[in-house]
Design a protein that fits this description.
There is one protein chain. This protein is of the alpha+beta class and 228 residues long. It has a domain at 79-223: RlpA-like domain (Barwin-like endoglucanases), CATH 2.40.40.10. Helix content is 33%, strand content 21%. A five-stranded mixed β-sheet has the order 2-10-7-8-6. A two-stranded antiparallel sheet has the order 1-11. Strand 4 and strand 5 form a beta hairpin. The radius of gyration is 30 Å and the shape is globular. The chain starts with a helix and ends in an 8-residue tail after the last strand.
Length: 228
């Protein structure tokens, strides 16, 4: 009788131990799942913060078209509110240099321009800056560091051949030492023609100036062209 009672107690203890082990495993499993959920939520929050900062830094300003002959709300940067007075003295001046066309961000240029890139270093509302819609300029990392210019800062493009100028923003990064690279919209605005492969027609020159710390200045379509 003692043996049977002992066996019964032993079986009960084993069952209890199994139950405790099972419950422990369930608790550990739930803890692991909870930890994963907390980790994922943390990553999402951090990513959201980074995106907000990124957008705030690179956001282009103002309604209107970069094409002076087709001003349409919501399309392009136009010019800075209060015009050149708001910009102050240029932080970067390329001097007269050969004009080059940057077609990045314009999906229609895929397969035409051998150096085309679907993205631009700067963004507008989280999207690449379309070269055909926005007047922008390209600067190298060294040029930006030396002048204190950041993406989104205002710039101007002048065609010394005809005296036309247009306001733009710094929205793409180019190779070291490169100057005079401008978007399709900027080129059109100052009277520079180009082929479908982005090669310019003739040998046009431009002067690019950029203004550090001006990214927050809103756009104003009435101040689009600096001169004509």
């Amino acid at each position: 009788m003692m043996i049977k009672e002992y066996a019964t107690l032993l079986v009960g203890a084993v069952d209890l131990d199994r139950t405790n082990c099972s419950q422990t495993r369930e608790k550990l499993s739930l803890m692991k799942i909870s930890a994963k959920i907390i980790f994922c939520l943390g990553v999402l929050v951090l990513a959201s913060c980074d995106d907000d900062d990124h957008t705030a830094q690179l956001l282009g300003g103002g309604p209107g078209s970069s094409d002076p002959n087709n001003i349409a709300a919501g399309d392009g940067f136009c010019g800075p509110q209060d015009g050149s007075q708001a910009l102050g003295q240029a932080s970067f001046d390329s001097g007269q240099t050969t004009a080059k066309i940057d077609t990045d961000g314009n999906p229609l240029m895929e397969g035409h321009d051998p150096t085309w890139n679907p993205n631009t270093s700067g963004q507008v509302n989280g999207q690449p800056v379309n070269s055909a819609q926005y007047a922008y300029v390209v600067m190298s990392r060294d040029q930006m560091n030396a002048s204190g210019v950041s993406f989104g800062d205002w710039a101007s493009v002048t065609n010394p051949g005809n005296g036309k100028s247009v306001y733009a923003r710094v929205e793409d990064r180019g190779p070291p030492g490169g100057t005079g690279e401008i978007s399709q919209a900027a080129a059109t605005a100052v009277g520079i023609s180009y082929l479908n492969n982005s090669a310019t027609i003739g040998n046009p020159s431009v002067i690019v100036q950029a203004y550090a710390g001006t990214a927050a200045i809103e756009g104003d379509c009435s101040a689009q062209l600096t001169s004509s």
